[in-house]
Write a structure and sequence with these properties.
Layout: E1 2-7, E2 10-17, E3 20-27, E4 34-39, H1 49-57, E5 63-69, H2 71-74, H3 83-98, E6 104-109, H4 111-123, E7 127-131, H5 146-150, E8 156-161, E9 178-182, H6 199-216
Parallel strand pairs: 4-5, 4-6, 6-7, 7-8, 8-9
Antiparallel strand pairs: 1-2, 2-3, 3-5
Length: about 220
């Protein structure tokens, strides 16, 4: 059972999954050729600066953006559940994401990026967008999650802050994925005021990279 609410420029839909009720906020392109589905991390929501910017920019380039709130977030819980439960929620949301009949890019930031990588092949994703991929816990490089990234099985773009404590760009292993660095950016792509690019310019690095990459996917 779904519930749909329409407002200017967006449609919000609730979807029942085996992990609880999820929510999708659709930002539709007029002549869409792809759907980009992006979910939040373990400590924030779909209002994150990168997810918001992609929703504002991508529809003009033929990409419908679906910002996805996992069931735990919709339920108002403060802590994300185990990865297995996150994957269950994402699987349950997928039929709604695929309903427009377009190729779906599976994406997310931080924990959401890990979910996208783990489930991409199984769900038939066209590609994966990993925003702030948490390569390892801060200060624990020995606890690498590189196998999740390298195992996505589909074309993958990583967008990573230059000062991300969860993994700086030069810590990433060699692989077939593409990686774009946001100079000075932290895990949420915030840049310090002393940096020689503004916050708006940092966000533009993200959106420009994703526009170009999605253009190459067809």
């Amino acid at each position: 059972m779904t519930h749909v609410t329409k407002t200017a420029g967006t449609t919000t839909e609730t979807v029942e999954t085996d992990a609880g009720t999820a929510r999708i906020t659709w930002h539709e392109a007029k002549r869409a050729r792809l759907v980009l589905a992006v979910s939040h991390g373990a400590g924030g929501g779909i209002e994150a600066r990168d997810l918001t910017a992609l929703a504002e920019v991508l529809p003009a380039h033929g990409v419908t953006v679906a910002r996805v709130e996992q069931p735990w977030r919709v339920a108002g819980k403060k802590l994300a559940p185990a990865p297995k439960t996150l994957d269950t929620g994402w699987r349950g949301i997928w039929p709604a994401l695929a309903r427009p009949g377009l190729p779906v890019i599976s994406g997310g930031r931080s924990a959401g990026a890990r979910v996208a990588c783990r489930t991409a092949t199984e769900l038939g994703a066209r590609a994966v967008l990993a925003l702030g991929f948490p390569l390892h816990p801060p200060g624990r490089p020995e606890k690498s999650r590189a196998d999740e990234l390298l195992g996505s099985g589909v074309p993958t773009l990583v967008v990573q802050g230059g000062n991300d404590p969860f993994g700086k760009p030069d810590e990433f292993p060699e692989g077939t994925y593409a990686l774009v660095e946001v100079p000075y950016g932290d895990h949420g792509f915030a840049v310090p005021k002393r940096a020689d690019l503004s916050q708006d310019e940092a966000v533009a690095v993200i959106t420009d990279a994703v526009v170009q990459w999605t253009g190459s996917l067809g």
